[in-house]
Amino acid sequence: MKFNPEEVKLETREDFDKAWSQSGKYLTPVDPSKDYSLPMEKGKAHPVYETLNRLREAYLNMGFEEMVNPIIIEDTDIFKQFNYEALAVLDRVFYIGGLPRPNVGISDERFAQIEAIISKPLTDADKETIRTILHKYKKGEIEGDDLVADLAAGLKVQDSKIAVVIDHVFPEFKKLEPEASHKTLRSHMTSGWFLTLEALVERRKTPLKLFSVDLVFRREQEENADRLRAYHSASCIIAHPDVTVEHGKAVAAGLLKQFGFSQFKFKPDDKRSKYYTPDTQIEVYGYHPALKGSNTKYRDGWVEIATFGIYSATALSQYNIPYPVMNLGLGVERLAMILYQAKDMRDMVYPQFKPEWEMTDEELAHMISIERLPQTQMGHEMAMGIIATAERNGSAPSPCAFEAWSGSLNGKKLKVTLVEKEENKKLCGGAYLNEVYVYKGDVLGIPLNNPKFKEVQDKGVHVGIRYIDAIANAAARNAEDGVYETTVKISRAPGDVFVLIDPVGLRYIQGKKRRVDFRGPVFTTIKVEPVE
C-alpha cells in the first residue's frame, strides 16, 4: 500500500528500532483468494543489454568460447603488462579499499549503556560473550555482516537492538576511514586476459578462440556524453603461433557484419599501447547504411567501432605465454549508441537519471485504464450486454428503452435497461462511442471517421477504450455495490466517463503542458431494476 515518506522519516528519526519493527504495517495483506501469478508477456530490454546479448551471440556464431575474466587485478600485474605505461594506467584505475577492524575497548560504562539499550542486565557470561565476539571480529574470524547477528544470538536479543548498540556505544565504528589495498578494478579487459591465458596455456591446444563481454572501470575525471566510469567491453582473443593482424581484420568484419555494418576501414592507432606489438594496434571503422544522413555525429555513415592488436612478447613472457595473441575489443555502450542513434551515452544507459523526462505515446497509453471494473463474472457479462445494446441502438430516437441484460447478481434477480425519457433525442449522446487516443503527449477522446482527427487516428496510439466501454463497466461495478443507476451527461474530463489516467502519466502530461480533452455529449443512462 502507498505510504507517506515524510511520516516514515519522522518515525525513523524518533525511534529507528520501533519504526523498523512496525514497518510491516505498510504492506498490503495477502488475499488467499487472489491469483498472484505473473502473466507471461514480453518485457522491455535495456539497449545496452540487448546489444550485449547480440554481441555474445555474434561471438558464439563465429566459434568463440565464452570466458569470465578476473575483475579484481593486483597492481603488480599492471606493471607486468604495461611496463613504462603502468603509472599512467594506474592513474585511471580504481583501487579497492576497505575499512580496518577497530580495537574496541569494553568499560563498565559501556556495559551500562548496552544494558539500557537492550533493556536487560548483562551477566558475567554475557559480558564475556561480547568480548569474545568483538575479539573474533577484530581477528577476522567473524565477518562484518555477521557481527550484529552473532551478538544478537549471543545475548538473546533482537538484532535491531544490537544495531543501535553498535551505533550508540561504539563510536570507533563511525570514525573508521577506508584504507586502500593493492587490488584494482580492471580498467582493460586485457588485464584479465593475461591471467586467463596464463592459466590455460598448458591445458589447451592452439588456436584458442575466447571472448568475454563484461564490465571495466575507468577513474574518469567526469562522465560525459561519450564516456562513463563503468562500461562493458566486448573483447576476444585468438592465441596461435601464426596469428597476424589479418586475423583481427577478419574477426572485426565477421563480428560487425552481424550488426548491419557493410564496409570497413582499418587505420593504425596512434596510441601505441605498450602491451601491443609495435605497428599492430589497429582502429576499426565501420560503415552503417542506417546512419547515413542521420542527425548524429555519424551522419556520413562511418564510425570508429573497435580496436585490435597483437599482444607483445614483452608482456606475454611475463605470464609464460609462448606464442602471439590477437586481441580485439569494442565498447558495448558505444555500439548501442550507434544502433539506437543515441546522442548521449549517459541518457541511454541511465534514463532514470535523465533531467529531461521523456515518455513515448505508447508508454503513456499503458497508463490509461477503465476506472471501475466489475469483480464478478455476472458483472462482466452485464457490462458486455450494456455495450452490445448501446452499439446496436445508440442512435435510436427517444423516448426509448432497451433491455441490455437480465440475470442474478449477488443473489438478486436484476434487469438492466438503457433509457432516454426526453423526446427528440437519441438513446445515447453523440460522443458515447468516442475512442481514447494518445498523440504527441495529448490524451484525446475522439469520434472515429471524423476528418478533423484523421492525423490522430493515423499516427496516434489507440488506447483501446471507448467511452461506452468504461461507462458500461462502471455501471456493472455500481450494480455489484448496490448502486442501481449510472448516468453520464456532458463529459469534460476522463473521470466523467470513468477513464483513469495513472498519476504518473498525469504528472508527465501536466509537466509537458500537453492536453487532456474528453469533451463531448454522452447522455447515457443505465438503470438496474429488481425482477420479482
Describe the structure in brief.
This protein has about 525 residues and is of the alpha+beta class. It has 19 helices and 20 strands. α7 packs antiparallel against α8 (about 145-155), α8 (about 145-155) crosses α9 and α16 crosses α18.
Low-confidence stretches: none
Broad structural category: alpha+beta
Report how far apart the termini are. 42 Å
Major sheet: order of its strands?
A: 1-5-6-10-9-8-7
Strand content: 15-25%
Shape: flat
User: What is the tally of helical segments?
Assistant: 19
| Share of helix, binned | 25-40%
Secondary-structure topology with pairs:
Layout: H1 5-14, H2 16-21, H3 47-61, E1 65-66, E2 72-74, H4 75-82, H5 86-90, E3 94-98, H6 108-118, H7 124-139, H8 144-155, H9 159-169, E4 179-185, H10 189-200, E5 208-217, E6 230-239, H11 245-257, E7 263-268, E8 282-287, E9 302-310, H12 313-316, E10 325-331, H13 332-339, H14 345-349, H15 361-365, E11 368-370, H16 377-393, E12 400-409, E13 412-420, E14 435-439, E15 442-446, H17 454-459, E16 461-466, H18 467-480, E17 485-491, E18 499-501, H19 503-511, E19 516-517, E20 520-530
Parallel strand pairs: 1-5, 15-19
Antiparallel strand pairs: 2-4, 3-4, 5-6, 6-10, 7-8, 8-9, 9-10, 11-18, 12-13, 13-20, 14-15, 14-16, 17-20
